[in-house]
Design brief:
The chain is α+β, with helices and mostly antiparallel strands. It contains 5 helices and 5 strands. Strands 2-1-5-3-4 form a 5-stranded mixed β-sheet.
Length: 126
């Protein structure tokens, strides 16, 4: 029962996030189809944690889901350095490279994020 409630709660939260990002009905429907009714991928972090993401997610999306967007400076996927735009695949092993004192310009990340959750989170930083 708890898993069922958690799933429904996550679905409602996702719909709310998408609704806040897209005022146009067609854009909203397209995003819902892409995020909620598409396949999910599961990636592994360096700590062994499994993170579920919508198919089409990239490193920026992963950073937002894992609360690393403030300190992310790079990433390796399956032991290879990748760009933030790298589209993650199921079972990828991701090592995020962070620096608490980073001055990377994150303003362009909003346009490069693929999920509404990541876009909402990035907008909250101003």
């Amino acid at each position: 029962m708890q898993d069922d409630l958690r799933t429904k709660s996550q679905l409602f939260k996702s719909l709310t996030d998408i609704n806040l990002m897209f005022q146009d009905n067609q854009d909203f429907v397209t995003q819902v189809k892409g995020e909620l009714f598409s396949d999910k991928i599961y990636v592994y972090t360096s700590s062994g944690k499994v993170i579920e993401l919508p198919k089409g997610s990239n490193i920026i999306d992963l950073a937002c889901y894992a609360d690393l967007e403030k300190v992310l400076v790079g990433a390796k996927v399956n032991d290879e350095v990748v760009n933030f735009d790298y589209e993650l695949k199921n079972k990828d092993r991701v090592i995020t490279i962070t620096d608490d004192f980073s001055s990377i310009e994150r303003s362009s990340w909003l346009d490069r994020a693929n999920t509404s959750y990541a876009k909402k989170k990035l907008k909250s930083f101003g």
